[in-house]
Amino acid sequence: MSYRNLPIDQVLSLLQQGDKQLLARLITCAESNKKSDQIYISEILSKFKYSANMTRRIGITGSPGVGKSSLIEKIGFELIKQGRKLAVLTIDPSSSLTRGSILGDKTRMVELSKEDLVFIRPSPSKNHLGGISEGTRSNIQLCEIAGFQDILIETVGIGQSEHEVSSVSDMTIWIGIGGAGDELQGIKRGIMEWADLMLINKSDGSNIAKSTKTKNELQSVIGFMPFRKNNKKAEILLTSALENQGIEEIIKKIDFFFQDILNNNKLISTRLDQEIQFFNQKWQKEILQELLLQKEIHIKHSELINLIESKKIDANSASIQLQEFIFAHFKDRKSK
Length: 336
Ligand SMILES: Nc1nc2c(ncn2[C@@H]2O[C@H](COP(=O)(O)OP(=O)(O)OP(=O)(O)O)[C@@H](O)[C@H]2O)c(=O)[nH]1
Ligand SMILES: [Mg+2]
Prior knowledge:
The chain is an alpha/beta fold. Helix content is about 50%, strand content about 15%. It is built from 14 helices and seven strands. It has helices at about 10-15, 20-30, 35-45, 70-80, 110-115, 135-145, 180-185, 185-190, 190-195, 210-225, 245-265, 265-295, 295-310, 315-335; strands at about 55-60, 85-90, 120-125, 150-155, 170-175, 195-200, 235-240. The protein has a seven-stranded parallel sheet with strand order 3-2-4-1-5-6-7, sandwiched between helices. β2 (about 85-90), α5 (about 110-115) and β3 (about 120-125) form a beta-alpha-beta unit. α4 packs across α11 (about 245-265) and α13 runs antiparallel to α14. The protein is globular and about 70 Å long. Guanosine-5'-triphosphate (GTP) binds next to α4.
């Protein structure tokens, strides 16, 4: 029987019992573009009352192939050893699941996925908000309702989108590799502005010297940087997923980070800020979509684009005209 035929309280209670199949179906629903599906998911989410027993949302980003999944697999085993329930949400930058990721294979966390305490779910990003899927926020919350305590969100950073994951995570981990010129460009892109922890992975074999050099270079740049809003500076570790090096240190840094933000009451306020930011992005985007679905507005918008193309009007005046048209349109409708 479909869960949609069950009373919503029953669905919520099944989810709270950790039913992974139901969780997977609800995530599919959360990722659907249908309005009815969106409303259903928001009903589920709003019925659940968060307890003080907070979860940890950890964003993991970095260029394709630096070893994000391999490290998550190692970190994951450490976390479940501590008895924690772990959900891994991987965000695939392709427009559809079947087209796969850039490197074509997301099945590397095979061992971890066999564990009872683990739930792994890939999602297409559908090009929303850089590397983050629009459903990611709901997916995280659904996993939390299902009792998962640590939510790791893996996303491929492409260009400027790397930091997008920090809009849904409490802690953001950036992974790079030693000696890569592109990675060092990160200094310019300001990775240290948003990454809470930086890992130089593949620090094994002949890479160790390159990794150490990169770490020292990054460290000296960080030394010159002012403290960030949270009074912290990014920290750097050398790791090897292949040789299981640095994993315990990563866990310690994660534990320390969360202890610190909990002690300072930062966790709840950061999540609230993120929620407000999401609300603002969402309503603006949806109102815009709705507006352009109105036939008259759509026609006016196309007319103005034609006028800009034929250089009969500039973008500024076109924007003013469109706004005036929209306001008049709604005034008309109200008075009818
Ligand atoms: N030498 C070495 N190779 C590694 C290490 N970690 C990962 N690799 C290899 O690097 C390749 C990519 O690893 P993944 O874990 O899939 O990297 P990823 O960042 O998740 O890749 P995408 O999700 O496709 O962006 C694989 O062939 C891994 O075996 C490491 O610590 N050392
Ligand atoms: Mg991966």
